[in-house]
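[step 3/7] inverse_fold.run input=structure_tokens len=221
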């Protein structure tokens, strides 16, 4: 692979913004799949399947020469999967449920090479929300920010500031675990190295505690 060319299987403006940080050629193709949870499906299996099906949908439809990258993010609270809220009422309920408690954010990724070979990875982070007020929830919901985000919030939102602390990957909670993507890309023959950890931390306001472990292949989620 002389120059990385990625096809992002996503309609998310946030993921388009994040992948642009890598400064490599990329295109976008939305993957229209049924994201309903299957009967008896565990949360981890669910998010892995959705990432895989998004990537496979684009590969089956287009057979592109680029590497396909798909991702899916879910919030897990007390064994309940919280996806993107459908309306103001659902967003309000989600934010109230998460308030002043901990939950997990899981982002699964799937890469498909032009020859159809697949690589998958998953990143799990633990997030502790602050004790925001009902009025803060109302203002945030009215802003419209919750509606395209799993769990109804954005960790990076500077006005609402929903997160008190977290363990894991800030970028993954945003929906794009850079180091896990790098780890998958390194498995491709002829891969040209991209300083993903450096790029990630240049753009995000924290020192990542896990990037070295992830890129060294440690199984940390």
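[step 3/7] decode complete -> sequence:
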């Amino acid at each position: 692979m002389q120059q990385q060319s990625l096809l992002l299987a996503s309609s998310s403006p946030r993921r388009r913004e994040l992948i642009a940080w890598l400064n490599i050629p990329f295109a976008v193709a939305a993957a229209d799949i049924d994201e309903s949870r299957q009967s008896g499906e565990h949360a981890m299996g669910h998010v892995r399947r959705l990432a895989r099906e998004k990537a496979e949908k684009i590969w089956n439809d287009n057979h592109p020469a680029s590497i396909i990258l798909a991702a899916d993010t879910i919030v897990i609270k007390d064994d309940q999967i919280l996806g993107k809220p459908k309306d103001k009422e659902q967003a309000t309920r989600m934010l109230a449920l998460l308030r002043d408690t901990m939950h997990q954010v899981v982002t699964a990724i799937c890469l498909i090479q032009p020859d159809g070979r697949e690589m998958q990875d998953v990143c799990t982070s633990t997030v502790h929300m602050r004790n925001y007020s009902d009025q803060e929830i109302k203002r945030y919901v009215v802003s419209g920010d919750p509606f395209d985000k799993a769990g109804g919030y954005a960790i990076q939102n500077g006005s609402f500031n929903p997160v008190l602390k977290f363990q894991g990957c800030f970028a993954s909670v945003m929906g794009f675990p850079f180091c896990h993507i790098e780890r998958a890309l390194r498995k491709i023959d002829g891969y040209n190295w991209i300083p993903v950890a450096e790029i990630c931390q240049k753009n995000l306001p924290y020192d990542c505690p896990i990037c070295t472990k992830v890129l060294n292949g440690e199984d940390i989620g």
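[step 4/7] annotate
Residues 43-62 form the longest helix (20 residues).
The chain has one domain: 6-215.
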